[in-house]
Design brief:
By secondary structure, the protein is an alpha/beta fold. It has one domain: NAD(P)-binding Rossmann-like Domain (Rossmann fold, 3-Layer(aba) Sandwich). It has 8 helices and 7 strands. Strands 3-2-1-4-5-6-7 form a 7-stranded parallel β-sheet, with helices on both faces. The longest helix is centred in the middle third of the chain and has 29 residues. Keywords: Oxidoreductase. Belongs to the short-chain dehydrogenases/reductases (SDR) family. It holds the Pfam family adh_short_C2.
């Protein structure tokens, strides 16, 4: 049974690897035996993450997922170093934030939502997933095996509950943006397309849809989010490690085109 989850001698690349969850994806894959390519915009940050990973021969790379040239250079470096690419975790994404909290509630309204923010989210969250899958997935199709994991969200499945962003004074502190759910829904649909397209080439493509992760948010938000979740809490950053290893490994060998929802039951009610 342990061998089913083993990633020994596999090469796995994680985009957005220096983020809160990205770091944990890297750690989980490394613990399962993979050589992990830690890919993000900042090379120094990637090197710091790679240095903390257990075992293996890990590679930090500066990668911009919306640049075909950056992705192609990274692909060539990975193949030169390891000879094969076996796992891609498409984790890089933008979760819309507004720098000035005083303006967040107003700017995040659908009626006022900036077109530039919408377009940037589409570029990173959708086009970035498309390009990374195209560049890193093509060698998988050539070699006849591989696993692509596209990270979406529960908000790709259900509409945001804007009431959880209302504070104790009854003030709407923020509206969850229209772009995040739209792009994450697109990721889920793209997964199905690519699973059908590359299935006969041995490349499995699945979605991981995580729920919200507790990360120093306002207490009222954590409380209200948790109250809507059957398990009664937000996720920790490590709660998705098992799911990533499962989807990357032979433990999910007959699974493709699926959406693995790990959300504490948020979408069950």
């Amino acid at each position: 049974m342990v061998n089913l989850f083993s990633l020994l001698d596999k090469t796995a690349i994680v985009t957005g690897a220096c983020g809160l969850i990205g770091r944990q994806h890297c750690a989980a894959l490394a613990l399962a035996g993979a050589n992990v390519v830690v890919a993000d915009l900042d090379l120094a940050a990637c090197a710091a993450v790679a240095a903390e990973l257990p075992g293996g021969h890990h590679m930090p790379l500066a990668v911009n997922v919306i640049s075909p040239d950056s992705l192609a250079t990274a692909r060539d470096q990975i193949l030169a170093q390891f000879g094969h690419i076996d796992v891609l975790v498409n984790n890089a994404a933008i979760n819309d934030m507004f720098e000035n909290p005083a303006l967040a509630a107003d700017l995040s309204k659908f009626e006022n939502f900036p077109l530039s923010t919408w377009q940037q989210s589409l570029e990173v969250n959708v086009t970035g997933v498309f390009l990374a899958a195209q560049v890193f997935g093509t060698p998988m199709a050539v070699q006849g095996h591989g696993s692509i994991i596209n990270v979406a969200s529960t908000y790709g499945l259900v509409g945001p509950d804007q009431s959880i962003y209302v504070n104790a004074q009854g003030e709407q502190t923020f509206f969850k943006s229209p772009s995040y759910p739209a792009t994450k829904g697109a990721v889920i649909s793209f997964t199905r397309y690519l699973a059908a397209y590359w299935g006969k080439r041995g490349v499995r493509v699945n979605t991981l849809s995580p729920g919200g992760v507790e990360n120093n948010q306002d207490g009222f938000f954590i409380q209200q989010y948790s109250a809507k979740t059957p398990l009664g809490r937000m996720a920790t950053a490590t709660d998705y490690q098992g799911a990533v290893v499962f989807l990357a490994s032979d433990a999910s060998a007959y699974m493709t085109g699926a959406n693995l929802v790990v959300d504490g039951g948020w979408t069950a009610i």
